[in-house]
Amino acid sequence: MKKGIQVLGLLCVIATAATSCKKYLDLVPDNVPTLDHAFSNRLEAEKYLYTCYSFIPYDGHPDRNPGFSGGDEAWTYWPMLQDYFFLDPYQIARGAQNRANPYMNYWDGYDGKSLWQGIRVCNIFLENVDRVPDLQPYEKERWVAEAKFLKAYFHWYLFRMYGPIPIMDKNLPISASPEEVKVYRQPVDSVVNYISNLIDEAAAGNDQAGLPLRINSVTKESGRITKVAALGIKARLLVTAASPLFNGNNDFAGLKNNNGQVLFNAQYDPQKWVRAREACKAAIDKADAAGLKLYHFNPAIINVDHATQIEMNIRNAVCEKWNSELIWGLTHEGAPTWWLQTYACPQFDPNNFNIDLKAKLAPPLKIAEMFYTKNGVPISEDKTWDYDNRFELRTATAKDTGIQEGYKTVGLHFEREPRFYADLGFDGSKWFMRNGKYEIQSKSGQYSGKKQSRIYSVTGYYTKKLVNWNLVVSQISLTVESYPWPVMRLSDLYLLYAEALNESGNTTAALPYLNQIRERAGLKSVETSWSAYSNNPTKYLSADGLREIIRQERSVEMAFEGSRFWDLRRWKTAPQELSKPIFGWDILQSTYEDYNRKVLLYNPQFIAPRDYFWPIQENNIQVNPNLVQNTGW
């Protein structure tokens, strides 16, 4: 594993651009980038703007985003000697985080990216863009808005990881005194207000000014910020700030600066949910103006049955490039999801084993249980579904969607909602690709199963949702159609809005947004499903009941997109959920009966309140004693 370069990001006061971004910033002959050169003309200034963008974390990579393997949505074999870039997220999932050399340390530098240095570069751009002589006013307006958003986004990324952080609105001058350099962390509410206000500045103006409403030239401007993306991230920020982790939380009452300043407001404020609701609605309105809509698969592309069409509604909402619901997609290195897809995909073709298909991103059994029944309610609530016998073997018939006819598997895999079959592969499941229909058979000795000490699913499940249907495999080649990683898509925004509506006293108004997502996934409305099939038919009528429904709906719809890792934290349900045992199937067995037995893989433990936030590296606190350490570290 190659660790990120450790730098004192926040304490760095040298007014230079990040040297890790040389491909975006021309260098003068002595290899020292100068501000005079960087802002001498439009072309060089645009390169510097790209340098600002280059600090965005690579969230579409399986080892660079803690949401993939740092929590409980995916597990893998251990120890891991190959097939990884960084072991950091796996170490976090196994409880090995530490303050001496923190894992995934974006504060100081992880994957070559210090977010404080990224903020510094944005500040340099904003301080010098007026010097560019040949920059058109409309371009300057847009570029300034982009730099402001990126500065806000880097603060937001750090805030979500570390909680209260310093605010770096202006760069410290080289002449700054040692005391000026020793900055303080700012209270949560101050940080949230700062980020929100900065995004407002970035998104200001009509649809023809500043940030564009949409990206019209994907080939030239893919991944750049729009008004919809900026407002969407603001909505996510304010929903997070209104959630239990930050709103009325007494767990961090003792977290104070050494000057006595309290960093967490322990008083619950219902107006934070009102503010979040308004931000979500503003983002949705802007998305409507930009023509965004929930993705639906076009059956004219290929002739498929109704069940497959619904499955592709779900899969391609993530995997189809620049589809109709993508709010902001990342395009790192031109292939932002290549590694993610190879980590997720099993050997699905019996005639073409390819070592590049790792199959290691393995969902645990509890994630398979999280999805609804075909009736759109939780498996433990559906009065028509055999919950008690869900681990008993059954034989599939031609009527059983998503399972190979005549194959035996557990009752858990029968009569489930379309997202279950779209998101997950398992022994006996079907795997639809553009070039054909395949069958997963992963017991010992079968083509999808474990053959060696690597390249297999440790649980027996596969993350089908993340694999683009255009992937083509042979024994000697692999073609992967990489798609932009969706930092945010429209269904995510709808779910945030539904949550904010419910928490702000508008329970009934939340239902249409849930139901649009459910309809796309082939399910009936919340009202119909719960009334007809749940053993708690009036659950959706109360704010408490609908909260539970919204959270599960979000967990299902956003599964394997890096959302659950953060949602469990902001909801303060992480100590319960992330301390549940990790189970899989007995993948070393060759018979139906032996394979379909639960096997305990690991007993994780989420220690609250410590594990809600990253530790600040202890060396930083020694250098700057005004930085107080997070609670529990």
Automatic annotation (TrEMBL):
Main location: membrane
InterPro entries associated with the record: SusD-like_N (IPR033985), SusD_RagB_dom (IPR012944), TPR-like_helical_dom_sf (IPR011990)
Record keywords, A-Z: Cell outer membrane, Membrane, Signal
SUPFAM superfamilies: TPR-like
Sequence ranges assigned to domain RagB/SusD in this UniProt record: 336-633
One Pfam family matching this protein: SusD_RagB
Localization per record: Cell outer membrane
Top-level lineage group: Bacteria
Record domain SusD-like N-terminal: where: 100-237
Coiled-coil regions listed in the entry: none
Family note: Belongs to the SusD family.
Protein name: RagB/SusD family nutrient uptake outer membrane protein
Source organism: Niabella pedocola
Native organism taxonomy: Bacteria, Pseudomonadati, Bacteroidota, Chitinophagia, Chitinophagales
